[in-house]
Each structure stands twice: as C-alpha cells, then as structure tokens.
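User: Sequence in, structure out. Go.
Assistant: Echoing your sequence, followed by the structure tokens.
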Amino acid sequence: MSFENRREYLFVYSVKDANPNGDPLDANHPRYDEESGQIMVSDVRIKRTIRDQWLREGKDVFVDGEAKTLANRVKELKEKFERDSGREILSNCIDTRLFGVTYALGREAFSWTGPVQFKWGRSLHKAEAKFIQGTAAFATTEASEQRSFRNEYIVPFALIAAYGIANQYASKQTNATDDDLDSLFEALWKGTANLITRSKIGHTPRLLVEFKYIKGFDGVLGSLDEKITLKSFKGEPLSDDEQLALRSVDEVKLDISEIAEKASLIKEKIESIRVIQDASIKCDPLERLENLFGGNLNIEVR
C-alpha cells in the first residue's frame, strides 16, 4: 500500500578536502555557482548516495551503478524475480518506487514520476575549489625516468544543505510505502557517512530533519534549505572572508529560526518530526521545536 502522508526533508552535511560533485565536462571541477560562490551538488548525486547504501544493505535496486545496457539489467532482474513484465520487475525495486523511472524496452514502455524528489544542494556559505597536482604512480612510457603527474580539484570545506519532498499522490502510481521512506531516511544519513572513496572521503552527515504531515494535507513549508543560515557563536552572520575561511563545524552554528517560525503557523498540520543530529554541530533553536511539538518530535544524536 502506498504512503499517504506528505513529507519534507532537510539534510545538512559537511565536506572537507574532497570533491562533493565533480563536473565531468569541466575536468571534474566541483560544481559551483559563479555568482553566489556556493558549491553545488546535483540531485542525481544525492540519489546515488542513497542507492549505494541500499546496495550495501542488500536491497533490490534497479540502477546498480554498473556499466551495462538496459536490456541486460532487465534480463538480470527477470531471472531474479521470475517475472517478464517490466512493471512487475521495477515494482520490486526500491529506487524506482521512490525516484521513478522511464522504461522503454521491446513493446513495453511506461514512465513513473518518482514521489521523492530533491533540489540541487548548495553550500550554506561561499566556498572555493582548490586545484591540486601530485605525482602519479607510473611513468607515461617505459623510457621515461620520471613519473607522470595527476591533477584534481578539492573543496577545503563546505557545509551543504539539500531539500527533498515526498509526494503522496505520486506514490499511488509507484506503490512506494512508509517502509520505503523509513529506508530512505536512514540511507541518506548512513550513505553519506559511507562515501569512503578517494574523492569522497571527508563527507560527514550533520543534520537530517523530516516533517511528516497529517493525512489529507498537501501543503509544504517549502525550500527548507533556504530557511537555514550559518551564524557565528555570537549569533552574527558570517562575512565573505569568514565564509571562505571556514574549515570546521566547530566554528559556526546552524540557525533554523525561520523553519521553526513557519512550522508554528501550521502546527496542527504536522503529525510528527524526526531529527538526527551529529553531536559535533550546534543547531538553534531545536528547543523551540521541542516546546511546540513535544512528544511528536523525536531527536536522535549520533
């Protein structure tokens, strides 16, 4: 049975001395907004983080990240599930139930709009990429006496916020369930912590918030990532120089005052709030949310 309660998500994570989301058409330079100076992360990268965690957990995922044709992937799943219909096959995969799919193979073609969608993530402050050069492991030719060089980009530090929404109406088409959304919630946090590759090590989940609304409500708080700000411990906004020099969450705190204010206006429409908070980060004013929602607010510190 599909889920019936709309949800909104705010996810904040930090990246240190790594590449949050390289652009393959620009020498893998970290994606960024030239006007604002913010580092950017695509929704596709966020979904890949979640999918990779599901694969670690042994869940059935349609897009498994391996280089293969659609026909070969479908063949694999047909043999596993002992089904011939593409619809039946993809209904068994958690990523297609939540993120949707466009399927066209043979005489069967259909498209599902995914009930869960994410905006592009953006850093909460100005940041910059650094161009790094190093020595490769091998020479380019047998006659060379010197090893070749490698080039790469890293971001010294970025605190990135991403926003997502779970649309109960679209879930009726894909049959995404409440259990699927629970898996998504955990995979977003754990998957980020498990980004342990050379280009991604340094990713740390810091704050994950889920607003679950009562049945029948189809409104939103909207763009939660734009309703959170970074401030100094004195409560002041950071200057441009302070933003660029930021290297640790120990230097700042997250201010979610606008989110708390908006939530208070539709308090009766919010069924519950789930929060996972990294113990290293300071977030104000979670106490206000506790006062507003009491037992309907669950905060877990990890």
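User: And one key feature?
Assistant: The chain has a mean pLDDT of 93.
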